[in-house]
Write a structure and sequence with these properties.
Length: 358
Amino acid sequence: MSERESIYEVVIIGSGPAGLTAAIYAARADLRPLVIEGPQPGGQLTITTEVENYPGFSKGIQGPELMAEFRAQAERFGTEFLTSWIRQIDLSERPFRIVTDEHTLKAKTLIIASGASAKWLGIPGEAPAPAGLGGLGVSACATCDGFFFKDREIVVIGGGDTAMEEANFLTRYARRVTVIHRRGSLRASKIMQEKAFKNEKIDFIWDTGVEEILGTAETGVTGVRLKNLKTGEERIFNCEGVFVAIGHKPNTDLFKGQLEMDEVGYLKTAGRTMATNVPGVFACGDVQDSCYRQAVTAAGTGCMAAIDAERFLDHLPVEIATGEEITIEGERVTADHEKIILPDGEVVSNQAELSLPA
Ligand SMILES: Cc1cc2nc3c(=O)[nH]c(=O)nc-3n(C[C@H](O)[C@H](O)[C@H](O)COP(=O)(O)OP(=O)(O)OC[C@H]3O[C@@H](n4cnc5c(N)ncnc54)[C@H](O)[C@@H]3O)c2cc1C
């Protein structure tokens, strides 16, 4: 394992829309960022086909092609890439220490853009094409793919808030939406359940598991094979689309015990900035966003994280999750902006002393 000599100003973890947008901004600010690409170079969009909602592409663009453009733009301004997987990270002191499969690196600031992964059932027919029907009628994102299912018969698998949200959203396009759930009642919040029950386009199949997604590359999805979990009875349910809505898992295992997260594992950021609770560590994209999970929002927060890192390296105060602002020297500006707490604990006023001309 080699110890890289240089200490990077900015290391970015992940090369999806968030990480590569952060790289474009950091590189144009002359910070010579290093992007560590991880297990999925280009991120989630590399496993999809047509992306129709990314602004600037009026005719749509293939996911892998869009991400190749992001990468070329980041490269053009001097971004360095490392195709490796981070195994360990130490955020207890700056520069931060990052251990990949082959290298140990140091970073003055870190931008985490490691994304989130949709949870899948692991059933036959679910994998991305050509191994399965993923992209050919199987999806985990109604906002992304609902538009392709106009006047179709589709099923949504799941019983939580995500599933109810997806089912309600999909009724804008679909002829009928059938929610298939393993239990006899929903886990979703009351308000989400009521919305789904009131929606005349949504039906429910209870106590039932989906065993297989049926179809071919030529036909796309044609149905699902269902099993009643109480009686064991199996049957085919015809449909043209399957949305798996059993939740997402943010890729944050590396940061457990080091960074503040919510109960699911999404990283917490300041709100107005992309700063985490550790000064100099920023997070952007799906890894800190359980709500929107879109390429354009990931790119937007990637831009914010890079500008935050740039400000921090420029010795300017950056707001952190507590509402305080912090500088690279460790000075803290209180949330009410009244006082500055110096690294040795001394407290001084943050008010400008104005001496007006006589
Ligand atoms: C099938 C599919 C279709 C979609 N279609 C659309 C669409 O049409 N429009 C739209 O706006 N959105 C769409 N989305 C959602 C969109 O892809 C995501 O919102 C977006 O990719 C999130 O970007 P990100 O940069 O935060 O993370 P990701 O794209 O998830 O990228 C994460 C990056 O982190 C890296 N990484 C993870 N762990 C490690 C590690 N330990 N070490 C180093 N690197 C690591 C990965 O290799 C990857 O490069 C779709 C998603 C899917 C799955």
